[in-house]
Design goal:
Shape: globular
Oligomer: single chain
Distance between the termini: 26 Å
Structural class: mainly beta
CATH architecture of the largest domain: 7 Propeller
Helix content: under 10%
Number of domains: 4
CATH topology of the largest domain: Methylamine Dehydrogenase, Chain H
Largest sheet: 10 strands, mixed
């Protein structure tokens, strides 16, 4: 995270210590996990479980610079002593006098929560500090500091507040819900803190409902006039009239923990799923705990969906897709997936553990994007991961290749078939080129010859043929973005991709990779890469907007060397607002998705 300290930060660390020869540094996170580093950059989980933090034995000193100072583990006999309190201190004479190493204008330059310090056995000028913002190291006795946090898997992940959409990136609450951070589109280095207004609104609503329901509300979800509230004692209560009245509370037969999360169908809010905090099944003959439940009638009855989920896990988050019946749950044991008919009673299929490419660890939340095409999972310590939602493998979806959204087709546009390896495709009597195919996604191009109000695609996959009809328009512009929401935008002079670390400049020419801009002149064959020189020009008039103000479009053509990509070049004004701006395209009154572009003067 970027908190404006000397280096990037992470979650709280409460102990640091060196090996006997000083070649290895150990750190224990607030959650109790221990990591080690030998190159003072990359961290690995502790390989030897017998290695434990040394006992704290504070030497007797004459004076302390502040009450309650915690003296570090010392290996030096030089009289050098380090200590932590509100700041880091050093004494070179056994504690007679002290120097403040981190104080500046009444604050510590290493942030709050300084917890421990340790001097290296091989050099008393080398000191490491554990704090509420991670691990810090100095090689010159505390005159300068560097964070060792960039590769320490200690991000205190909480709930997913939002997933990428338009100019918004992934938003995540930190553990405990005290603050909110964002991985913005185009960000490459660190999470940035937000003002926390989203979390404050959530806290205010929970506090108000707690007063109404006479119990501490820990989770809530709303859709239309429905409000679902779960409390700290595992109760679930529902209002179908915006809070004017409340139904009878549901409580599982066993004493479980607080309700952690609730998902509600936005189109039919009678359907909802709740995740409760399960506790260890201490009685051998007692039924296993129920901690994932669903309702199909607005909370009148709740059905158990727990089935084969681990008995001792706590469920922290839940997400679902009504159309496919897919349900995802985040637990202490990781992310699990099942399918069921959310509109009728019946047991779900067995839960499947989703472990591929995910580090082992506690999952704190899951969320699907608006089209239920991509699954986001927050893992404590490791951050947020994204993948094509597994349920798409049995429920393929044709979406825009630019941003995986549901969008009208246009002649020449690129589309992705999520969840199927497409072997061949046709539209009426025209062959539709399959440009790329894998087990999770395939890419096809709508023929330039497509006409009418719809285009029908017959797709041959390993599981058989299926047909998809898409509305057809002359243009349906879309700017390409990656799963983090970063747009494919380049500096025209250098060809460098632009993002938060490499912003564009005022008065520069910017190139945008897009699709859906329709027919070109001269005509160009479907499925063939555009020529490297004099690529065919777009017939439609293309406009571009930066922060809602029109900018000059100097070129709109097929992208040289690519199939189905269009290149739109724009000229930025001589004077621009520095920082992130909103960019979008327009053709024949049809607007593209909004993306975030970074500009500096």
């Amino acid at each position: 995270m970027d908190l404006g300290l000397p280096s990037l930060t992470t979650g709280a660390v409460d102990r640091v210590w060196y090996s006997a020869d000083g070649s290895v540094l150990y750190a224990r996170t607030e959650s109790g996990r221990i990591f080690q580093t030998v190159d003072f950059e990359q961290w690995k989980p502790l390989a030897d479980p017998r290695v434990m933090p040394p006992a704290v034995v504070s030497p007797a000193v004459a004076t302390l610079p502040e009450p309650g100072l915690k003296l570090g583990v010392q290996a030096s006999t030089s009289g050098r002593i380090y200590g932590t309190g509100s700041n880091v201190y050093r004494s070179d004479d056994g504690g007679l006098t002290w120097s403040n190493l981190t104080g500046y204008k009444g604050l510590s330059i290493l942030g709050d929560g300084l917890a421990d310090s340790a001097a290296s056995p091989r050099d008393p000028d080398e000191v490491a500090v554990a704090s509420g913002t991670g691990v810090w190291r100095s090689m010159d006795g505390g005159l300068t500091w560097t964070g060792l946090n960039e590769f320490l898997p200690n991000l205190p992940a909480g709930h997913l507040v939002a997933v990428p959409a338009g100019t918004r990136g992934v938003r995540l609450s930190l553990a405990g819900g005290a603050s909110e951070i964002e991985w913005a589109p185009g960000e490459k280095s660190a999470w940035e803190p937000l003002d926390g207004s989203d979390l404050q609104r959530d806290r205010d609503l929970k506090a108000a409902l707690s007063q109404v329901l006479k119990h501490t509300v820990t989770a809530l979800a709303t859709a239309k006039d429905y409000i679902y509230a779960g409390d700290s004692e595992g109760r679930l209560q529902v209002s179908s009239d915006g809070g004017d009245s409340w139904g009878t509370a549901y409580k599982a037969a066993r004493d479980l923990g607080a309700v952690q999360a609730i998902w509600v169908d936005p189109n039919d809010p009678r359907v909802a799923i709740a995740a409760l905090g399960a506790r260890t099944n201490s009685a051998p003959n007692q039924a296993k705990p129920t901690y994932v439940v669903r309702t199909m009638n607005g909370g009148i009855f709740w059905d158990d969906m727990t089935d084969n989920l681990p008995e001792t896990a706590i469920a922290h988050g839940v997400a679902a897709d009504r159309a496919s019946g897919a349900v995802y749950v985040a637990t202490d044991a990781g992310v699990f997936f099942t399918t069921t008919d959310l509109a009728s009673a019946g047991r779900p299929s067995a839960w499947t553990y989703l472990a591929r490419n995910l580090p082992p660890g506690r999952a704190t939340d899951v969320r699907l994007d608006a089209g239920a095409n991509q699954l986001y999972a927050a893992l404590d310590g490791y951050g947020v991961y994204v993948a094509i939602a597994p349920h798409r493998l049995s429920d393929a979806r044709v979406v825009s290749a630019a941003d995986y959204s549901t969008r009208a087709a246009a002649p020449g546009a690129l589309f992705s078939v999520l969840g199927a390896r497409i072997e061949s495709a046709r539209s009426a009597n025209t062959v539709v080129p399959v440009l790329n195919a894998s087990d999770t996604a395939s890419q096809i191009q709508v023929p330039f010859e497509a006409k009418g109000n719809t285009v029908s695609l017959a797709l041959d996959a390993a599981a058989g043929r299926f047909t998809v009809g898409l509305p057809l328009q002359d243009v349906a512009p879309a700017i390409f973005v990656d799963p983090e929401g970063t747009p494919l935008v380049m500096d025209a002079s250098s060809g460098v991709m632009l993002d938060a670390t490499k912003p564009g400049h005022a008065n520069a020419r910017i190139q945008i990779l897009a699709t859906g801009l329709g027919r070109v002149t001269p005509d160009w064959p479907t499925g063939l890469a555009a020529p490297l020189s004099d690529p065919p020009r777009v017939l439609a008039s293309v406009r571009a907007f930066v922060d809602h103000s029109p900018v000059e479009v100097t070129q709109a053509s097929l992208a040289p060397g690519y199939i189905g990509f269009y290149l739109v070049e724009i000229q930025l004004p001589r004077i621009n607002n520095a920082g992130p701006v909103e960019l979008y395209l327009e053709a024949q009154g049809q607007q593209s998705n909004r993306v975030r572009l970074y500009i500096q003067q």
